What does this fold into?
Amino acid sequence: MASDIVNANIHVHTRMAESYNTEPHFRPENQAKVQKILAALAARCGGGKLLDMGCGTGFIIHLARSYFKEIHGVDVTQAMMDKIDRSGGTITLHNSPAETVPFPDAYFDMVSAYSFIHHVEDSRKVLKEACRVLRKGGLCYVDLEPNKLFWRRMMELPAGDAPGLSAMIKKARDSVTLTDEKVQAEFGIAKDVFNKAEYGKSILGGIDPDEISRESEALGFSSCAVRYEWFVGQGDVMHGQSFDAAETIENHLRALAPLSNHLFKYVQFIFVK
It folds into this structure.
């Protein structure tokens, strides 16, 4: 029987399926960024078989079809998978939870999970399953996961029009603290149901990059590379100033790591089996 978390995800994403492709990560600059990552990872692993966990409406599948000979997508929400364009590649979709995918051991060259593992109740079970179906030396690409360091800091900020907070910081804070209210108003989805569907973000307060990295060997991986992505206000700088200005700021913040890690909204992992 499906858990409350799975049922919440099916409910939320069925309601949001029609408009899901307008989410921020579908913006051209992010698609170009992810496509470049996928091209590099495909070259590393040979571009054979890819499994996309939590495939949704096909964000990764669309970008990866040119780089992999065979792609499988799994998701629990059929309404989302119904939006996927399966032309232009060998693409097979499966209505299945990511914790128990219908594939033999060591079947894939790469597994991807984009903006997904914070939706599940136990991200470790998903990562362990990803490792199981990867061949030795295969790659697991996880990205756009809520950085717990950032989420914690946003939750500490005062609410409302608190003095001393810039419009940029208020926008970032509200994206963490008020998204459930926005979704309830726009889609009629109860806040508690939405928060269950975003379990790792709304209930657990984000993904802890250090914790995942420490546990990666126990999950079956030989290495784990962590990278922080999308600093506070990066999109505003890109479109309000220039892409070059955003790149300059990003490079500066990376040079200040680890002191600056909490200023990035998301975290990326690349695991090697």
Observations:
- Residues 119 and 198 are 5 Å apart (CA to CA).
- The two ends are 31 Å apart (CA to CA).
